[in-house]
Fold this sequence. Notes:
Distance between the termini: 36 Å
Oligomer: single chain
Shape: elongated
Strand content: 5-15%
Order of helices and strands: HEEEEHHHHHHEEHH
Number of helices: 9
Number of domains: 2
Structural class: mainly alpha
Bound molecules: zinc ion
Number of strands: 6
Amino acid sequence: MPDRKNRDEQFPLRGFVACGSCGWGYTSSYSKSRNGERHAYYHCFNKSCELRGKTVRRDDLEGQFEQLVRSMEPDPMVFEIATKMFKNAWTQRAAQMGARRRALQAESDKLDGSIDQLLNSVTQVKSQTVLATFEKKIEDLENQKLVIAERLAQSEQPRLSFDDSVRTALAFLQSPWKLWTFGNYEHKRLLLQLAFSKRIEWVLKEGLRTAEIALPFRALANFSSAGEGGGGGDWIRTSVRSEAGRFTVCWN
Ligand SMILES: [Zn+2]
């Protein structure tokens, strides 16, 4: 549905900012004024809500949201610590993967050895029955090798360098507003999912209510204080979920 996708991308806060009266996620729409100008709005679409149909200009809402995101810059020193944590986690994981690959390779070499042995002795075999047994055995070993080759291919690593893989995550942590301002739609949705534990409500004539910042940000904002369990992000159902999962792992 290209139309739907297009609309979503023009309203990154759709479904995230919620109606201050009933709590439903805002939807969005365009309207045309008399002079033909097109205006973009967010609004509640809950039939039983008193504020249904009361629109908020997209610029107003997104402008305020950007201010909020701008205020979320972590302290540079805290950021440095976070970078080190990422790097350590990455190195550790790479080492684990390396060990696994070496073990698989050794197993594969051992199978090669057994196959060679069988091939060498097969020349001396005269009996058809024994020959058939040898063939069967060699086939089994070849199959085992295939399985290992597949596992090796799966544990191919590192697919990306630390810098490539974590750059987005770190850029995000270091400067959420940059990601918000210059990122694509997926980056924006990822930021919403990672940085906030809940939807933020919009109160008419007042603006955004105080946001609940998700754990990584709380952790960055105040490294020494103990966190209170993971942030939500349940409000969102987008393709970024798995990506977010990757980031979360780094923080656990
Ligand atoms: Zn409402």
